[in-house]
Amino acid sequence: MTMKRISTVLTAGFLLLLMTIAMPSFAQDTKKDKAAKALTDTMRTQLSLDDTQYSKVYDINADFVGKLAGLKDDSDSKMAKFKKMKAIDEDRDKALKAVLSAEQFKSFQEFKKQNRQEMKARFKERS
């Protein structure tokens, strides 16, 4: 799988996650589960997760998605929400680091970094 294809898949997964968070709150648990599954399926492909890792990564992603969804209704400022989101992301990274091999975690971090750069570029294009 080429780096561009991997990046596209990661971006699609992240956008799916963001769309899920932006959806109305009815049936939210099902939407969170779907987002966590989509995110974990993408990671399975990218990082060659085994079945045990998949299960653990799914649980981590489900918790991550749930916490991000909780920020939607938060009345804090955008900066405060950003700081909370960053803390949630750091907690997720710590949990993933315990499940993934060093090589898998490094790949995950590289994909995440590249995805953020692409998102920033798209945001600048829209501005």
* End-to-end CA span: 32 Å
Helix content: over 70%
Number of helical runs? 5
Strand percentage: under 5%
Record field, number of beta strands: 0
Structural class: mainly alpha
Low-confidence stretches: none
Give the CA-based shape: globular
Radius of gyration: 15 Å
Order of helices and strands: HHHHH
**Whole-number mean pLDDT:** 83
Count of folded domains: 1
How many strands, what sense, and barrel or not for the largest sheet?
none
Quick synopsis:
Helix content is 86%, strand content 0%. α1 runs antiparallel to α2 and α1 packs across α5.
Can you offer a commentary on this structure?
By secondary structure, the chain is mainly α. It has one domain (3-126). Helices cover 86% and strands 0% of the residues. The protein is built from five helices and no strands. The protein has helices at 3-22, 28-47, 51-72, 78-99, 102-126. Helix 1 (3-22) runs antiparallel to helix 2 (28-47) and helix 2 (28-47) packs across helix 3. The radius of gyration is 15 Å and the shape is globular.
What topology emerges from the helices and strands here?
Elements: H1 3-22, H2 28-47, H3 51-72, H4 78-99, H5 102-126
Helix pairs in contact: 1-2, 1-3, 1-5, 2-3, 3-4
